[in-house]
Amino acid sequence: MTTTDLLNGAPNALQDAAKNHLWMYFTRHGNFANHDVPMIVRGEGCYVYTDKGKKIIDGLAGLFTVQIGHGRTELGDAAKKQSDKLAFFPLWSYAHPMAAALAERLAHLAPGDLNKVFFTSGGGEAVETAWKLIKNYYKLIGKPTKHKIISRALSYHGTSQGALSITGIPFAKIPFEPLVPGGHKVPNTNFYRAPQHVNHDEKEFGIWAADQIEQAILLEGPDSVAAVFLEPVQNSGGCFPPPPGYLDRVREICTRHDVLFVADETITAFGRIGETFAINRFGVQPDIIICAKGLTSGYAPMGAMIASDRLFEPFSTGTSMFAHGSTFGGHPVAAAVAMKNLDIMQDEKINEHVREKEGIFRQTLEKLYNIPIVGNIRGEGFFYGIELVKDQKTRESFTPQESERILRGFISNELFESGIYCRTDDRGDPVVQLAPALIADEKQFGEIEVILRNVLSKANSMI
Ligand SMILES: Cc1ncc(COP(=O)(O)O)c(C=O)c1O
Question: Which of 142, 201, 204, 209 is the most exposed place for a label (fewest CB within 10 A)?
Fold first, then answer.
């Protein structure tokens, strides 16, 4: 069937195609035995539209991705222009202008000496790349036993076997074990769930959490630990900002033990918290930044690992090389889209907009605290998690069965039916995650609040 046949075919042709042939990610396909697959056919600004013409507020910017909003034809124009000129050429010992220009631009935007840009097709591939680079680097500088990675409970870093080993979500890992050896986990920075001895002071909690990293390095042996991977604001688990002083202390610990600090900014880069790189808000210098998603606002697939000069140095002379790459990394069309996206973000002052409006976003969401099921609202910029509880006072969470019934069985669908696309997640405690396009303002914040209020109030009565 051609695209035209399919699009102009019987009313259910696309549903049938999706149900019979499309293998969706992290999806319980059984859910669609008696239901249509939600089919998104168009986007405009902060909204998307279904095949049935329903307007939905995109409360997750696709997947923390569509920074400048849907329907920006300039990005398609940039893609076409590049495709007409040079649709494809690989970066295997050859360069093309867009990859070179974008690499230079990212190096300028990245903090300190993060000057070497290795392109990938997405975030997980950049995480995988970083781990390989780190292992290779330590071999080349005479520390061949350094290979292990410390990362945090509940964190998500991608689905390939290395990235999954760094990921801290048991259900996503267990079916695929054994994974790449060497991934070790430490507590994350969910202050709402801090252990009792440090749950009264955020700074103290931050010091404790950072010290868990040092403990892990010492227990594993500094000669074996190569790097710490963390997101400046952790997504999975429901948006954990770093407590004051936490990232500085992690930096100190890493430096003390010659362990590299990798900031996985797959979500947080490109304006999500009002900075091109979130790590700049916290004033900490990493050795590597991982980025993807917002780099192109999702108009083309692209990611990058941005590494320091120090990490590149052993590969810079003689016959040495980093024996790694892919066909599509640094794709000319994706690079052209990224360049245009960064132009737009700069011209339209997207970071400034997020900084100006983030307080209002927070205040609007915080109105939801008068619904008893709302336990904790946390985040930065346009990036928030709302943790749901059975009891606001005791912070008692749902049992797995209650989570299944209330979160998956009701809230998730009801939110979409009520006109918002966002994510409900119970990889840790149950949360609703929000990350609208970075052009959102009071209008969308208000709409989000109204829908959430309605749905969460109903969910509250189901407890
Ligand atoms: C922090 C983080 N790292 C890595 C990834 C994986 O990125 P991708 O899906 O582009 O491979 C994600 C995806 O959401 C992420 O949030």
Answer: 142
**By CB neighbour count within 10 A (0-12 exposed, 13-18 middle, 19+ buried), where does 115 fall?**
middle
Mean pLDDT, contiguous 10-residue spans, the chain (463 residues): 68 90 95 93 98 97 98 98 98 98 98 98 98 98 98 98 97 97 98 97 98 98 98 97 98 98 98 98 98 98 98 97 98 98 98 98 98 97 97 94 91 96 87 98 98 97 91
Question: Which ligand 1 atom sits closest to the C-alpha of 163?
Answer: 4
Ligand 1: residue whose CA is nearest its atom 7: 123
Distance 168 CA to ligand 1 centre (A): 13
CATH number of 38-68+352-460: 3.90.1150.10
CA distance 38 to 40: 6
Nearest CA to ligand 1 atom 2: 157
Could you state, in order of their start, the residue ranges of all structural domains in the chain?
38-68+352-460, 74-347
Task: List the CATH code of the domain at 74-347.
Answer: 3.40.640.10
pTM summary value: 0.97
Tell me if 267 CB under 6 Å of ligand 1: yes
Please give the number of the atom of ligand 1 that sits closest to the Cα of 290: 3
For ligand 1, the distance from its centroid to the CA atom of residue 73, given in whole angstroms, is 26
Peptide bond into 90 cis (omega under 30): no
β-pairing, 423-425 with 420-421? unpaired
